Each structure stands twice: as structure tokens, then as C-alpha cells.
């Protein structure tokens, strides 16, 4: 430890080194005791100075609600019930508008574009690149993503606007402290459920560098906007199909909630492991003030959810879907040795994919989707059409299959060799894989460290391979198909 004989001669660097050394000599709960003492003294002073006539006779609605939603007994069940309800409404309500949009884009607009291209004598390769590749990939992104986002984000924003999300943070604070992480990590994690890049930036509220690194590394386990559509669609197709139709929506919602909860559990586990290995140190304490409950502001909720979230995420997906659709079409129509480039890549990765309960198409899709998770499903569908030989609409290879219902989507995936194991492991891999390129760049800018950027990118990917491999082997050992 650095000591200075004359404090007046100490430089700023010396003072910081001395303070850092003294931190290790303090007790583990010194911050908690200090904060508790400050608030205790403040409460005693307020009780002596403030008179509240008739307060005992007046019910406090906020405190009454908080006794339930922050209760050690009822807090977590209520939280699970609310999020399950949101996902059930999203899954059940998105089917009809998704089918309507798919019919509009595939059955109405697509033939018009093809006829227009033929009438002006557009070359087949340009027709295929622009319409069969870029247009159909973008059309599928919009038809699949827009309806669930337009339902999910307003509902999620409503909970935020009412003041419930800070109560979720309050419930999780003690768990983060026991995991050796900062309580404010719960706030950055909640931001990560919207966008992991935003969640990484939100870790700036954590003063301790050690605890901030933990929050950054584990933020990828919060399911971001781009991954919700994949989880919802796969749960609807494969998990919901296990029960009668009237229970399908509920079971699908429970499956999505289970994956989100697994992400929270992994956040605690990885935080605990990091805080006892690479990032040892003292746990800090913070004060969280719960805002009062507010009546819903419908117009603001609609604006925030539709403009700031739904359209922003959709636009980002479209921007990345256009070049992805072009790349897939080119890969499907450029041949080497009589086999397309896309098929070469799929065949190369297929053994690894099957080993972990997925397939080569899914692994290639995640490579293509590194810029944005939103294009995983469109890429999977286009590559499945290519590898199965189903051309659906259009004349060239690598054309999006004409899908206007979930049953047709599932039929296409089954034709591509998908099983229940594939659906389950895709949901797990969607939770545990490398962050998107935007998040990786944000991590580097926030940490300034290549080492921690690489750790943040590869740690969840390695966990994804390990978990899906383990699930696949257990599944096959127990006699499951696939």
C-alpha cells in the first residue's frame, strides 16, 4: 500500500492509490452499514421535525401495493405472473396480423414486382437479387417481427410507466449482492431486455470498475429486442404444438418466460463466478428510491413503445435484412464445383450443428446475423428453402418460401430436418451466443479493453455450445427424436 508522509505533498495519483489500498482493509459490509446509518439518522430527524396530522387514519395505496409486489413471499410469483401474461397476450395476438402481413407481401406485392420486372426486361440475376433476395428477406422480417413487437413493447412500456419495473429491481437487489455483484446491475439488466448495447452503456451508473465489468460481461444474458421474435416464434411452433390449441398460447408463453428466467439465473451464476475468480473484490451498496405509482399515460406509452422501440428495432432489422437477403441469394446462386457457396457452408457446419442438437443452417444463420439478431429467422427460412430444394415462389434458388401461416412455417422447418430438440436448443442458443456487432463495439468503447471485449463475446458463445451439447446428449440418451 502506498503511504504519504506529508499529505500536503501528495499527488492525485498517490491519494487514489492510498484509497484503493484502504478499500481492502474495510469490512465487507461497510458500505451497507454506512448507508443504513445515514438513512436511520435522516428518519429520526424527520420524525422529530415533521408533523403529519391524520396520517395514521389515511390509507397509503402505494405502500399497500408495495407490501405485495415487493414481498419476499409474493413478489416473485407476481412478477412471473405479469410477464407470463404479457407473453401470452403477445403470442396469442400476433398470429392474425402476422398472417395478414405475410399474405400482403407474398401474395399481393410479390407477384406485382415480378411482373413489373419481367415487363421492363430486367435481367434474371438482378430480378433475383432485388426481389427474391432483398425484398423477400425484408418482407419476412416485417411480417414476423412487427406484430409481436407492436403488442409486446406497449405492454412492457406500460409496466415501466406505472412504476413497476423499479420494484423488480428492488426484488433482485439482494440476489445480486449475494452473487458478489452491484445492486445497480439489476437496472442495467432491465435495460438489456430492450437492447444489450443500451444495457452496456447503462452500466455507467456503477461506480466500481470491478462490478461494472461483471455487469457488462453478463448483460448478454438479458434477452434483447432482436431475440424476442425468434423465441416467440419457435415456442409457438414447437412448444405450443405439444398441447391442444386452447393451451398452446399459454404453454408457449411459459416457455419464453422460462428462457428469460434462465438468462437471469445465468446472470447470477456467472456474476458469482467472476466475483470469486477474475474479478474479486468488495461488494458495493447503493440506495434505490422507489417512485410512486402513476396512472397510465396512454399516449406517451404508445409513442415510447411504437416510435422509440418498435419502429427503431424494426428499422434496424430492415437495414440489416436487405444486405443479408442479397448475400444469401448470391450464396445460393454462385456455384463452386456444382454446389452453391451457401450449401458448401451449410454442409461444412452441419456435423457440428447436429452434434449440439441444431443444424448447419442455424449456425450459418447466426453467422449472417452477427450484425443483428433480428434476421436469424428470415435467414434460417431462406437457407432451409435452398437446402431442401423447395422453391415456393420465384424461379431462382435461395428464394423465400411463401409462408402465410405458422403451419406452413413449421412444415418447412420439419422438411429441413427440425425436431422438438432443434426448437428447444435453438431457444437456448438464442439466449447463449455471442452479442451482436453493435453490442460488441459498445463493450469495447465502454471498457477500452480488447481482453474484456473478447471475454464478453466468447464466454456466452462457449456456454451456448456446452449447454446445447449437454441437452442434445441427454435427449438422445433418453431416447428422444433428433
- Strand arrangement across the biggest beta sheet: 1-2
Q: How far from one another are the termini?
A: 59 Å
> Averaged pLDDT, please?
81
- Overall structural class, as computed from helix and strand content, comes to mainly alpha
User: How is the quaternary structure best described?
Assistant: single chain
Largest sheet: 2 strands, antiparallel
Tell me the series of helices and strands, N- to C-terminal. Answer: HHHHHHHHHHHHEEHHHHHHH
Summarize the structure.
By secondary structure, the chain is an all-alpha fold. Helix content is 71%, strand content 1%. α8 (196-202) packs parallel to α18 (437-447), α15 (376-388) crosses α16 and α18 (437-447) packs across α19 (450-477).
Amino acid at each position: 500500500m502506498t503511504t504519504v508522509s506529508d499529505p500536503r505533498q501528495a499527488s492525485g495519483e498517490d491519494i487514489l492509490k492510498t484509497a484503493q489500498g484502504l478499500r481492502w482493509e474495510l469490512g465487507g459490509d461497510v458500505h451497507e452499514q454506512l448507508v443504513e446509518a445515514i438513512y436511520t439518522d435522516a428518519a429520526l430527524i424527520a420524525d422529530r421535525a415533521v408533523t403529519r396530522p391524520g396520517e395514521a387514519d389515511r390509507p397509503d395505496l402505494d405502500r399497500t401495493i408495495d407490501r405485495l409486489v415487493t414481498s419476499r413471499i409474493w413478489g416473485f410469483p407476481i412478477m412471473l405472473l405479469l410477464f407470463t401474461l404479457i407473453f401470452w397476450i403477445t403470442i396469442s395476438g400476433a398470429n392474425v396480423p402476422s398472417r395478414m402481413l405475410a399474405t400482403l407481401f407474398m401474395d399481393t406485392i410479390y407477384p406485382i414486382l415480378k411482373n413489373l420486372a419481367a415487363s421492363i426486361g430486367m435481367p434474371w440475376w438482378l430480378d433475383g437479387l432485388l426481389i427474391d433476395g432483398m425484398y423477400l428477406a425484408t418482407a419476412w422480417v416485417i411480417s414476423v417481427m412487427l406484430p409481436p413487437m407492436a403488442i409486446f413493447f406497449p405492454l412492457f412500456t406500460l409496466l415501466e410507466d406505472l412504476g413497476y419495473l423499479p420494484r423488480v429491481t428492488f426484488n433482485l437487489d439482494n440476489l445480486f449482492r449475494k452473487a458478489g455483484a452491484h445492486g445497480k446491475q439489476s437496472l442495467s439488466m432491465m435495460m438489456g431486455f430492450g437492447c444489450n448495447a443500451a444495457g452496456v452503456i447503462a452500466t455507467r451508473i456503477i461506480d466500481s470498475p470491478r462490478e461494472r465489468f461483471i455487469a457488462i460481461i453478463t448483460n448478454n444474458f438479458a434477452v434483447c429486442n432482436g431475440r424476442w421474435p425468434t423465441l416467440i416464434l419457435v415456442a409457438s411452433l414447437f412448444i405450443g404444438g405439444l398441447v391442444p390449441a386452447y393451451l398452446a398460447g399459454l404453454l408457449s408463453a411459459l416457455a419464453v418466460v422460462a428462457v428469460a428466467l434462465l438468462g437471469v439465473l445465468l446472470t447470477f451464476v456467472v456474476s458469482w463466478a467472476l466475483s470469486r475468480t477474475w474479478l474479486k473484490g468488495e461488494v458495493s451498496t447503493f440506495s434505490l428510491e422507489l417512485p410512486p405509482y402513476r396512472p397510465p399515460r396512454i399516449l406517451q406509452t404508445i409513442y415510447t413503445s411504437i416510435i422509440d422501440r418498435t419502429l427503431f428495432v424494426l428499422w434496424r432489422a430492415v437495414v440489416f435484412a436487405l444486405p443479408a437477403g442479397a448475400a444469401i441469394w448470391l450464396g445460393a446462386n454462385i456455384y463452386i464445383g456444382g454446389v452453391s457457396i451457401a450449401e458448401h457452408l451449410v454442409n461444412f457446419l452441419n456435423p457440428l450443428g447436429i452434434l449440439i442438437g441444431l443444424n448447419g443452417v442455424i449456425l450459418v444463420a447466426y453467422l449472417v446475423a452477427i450484425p443483428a439478431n433480428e434476421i436469424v429467422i428470415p435467414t434460417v427460412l431462406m437457407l432451409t428453402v435452398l437446402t431442401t430444394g423447395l422453391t415456393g415462389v420465384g424461379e431462382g434458388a435461395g428464394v423465400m418460401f411463401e409462408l402465410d401461416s405458422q403451419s406452413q412455417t413449421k412444415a418447412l422447418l420439419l422438411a429441413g430436418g427440425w425436431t422438438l430438440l432443434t426448437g428447444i436448443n435453438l431457444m437456448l442458443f438464442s439466449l447463449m451466443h455471442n452479442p451482436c456487432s453493435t453490442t460488441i463495439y459498445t463493450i469495447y468503447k465502454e471498457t477500452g479493453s480488447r481482453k474484456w471485449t473478447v471475454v464478453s463475446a466468447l464466454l456466452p458463445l462457449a456456454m451456448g455450445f456446452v449447454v446445447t451439447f449437454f441437452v442434445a446428449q441427454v435427449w438422445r440418451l433418453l431416447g428422444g427424436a433428433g
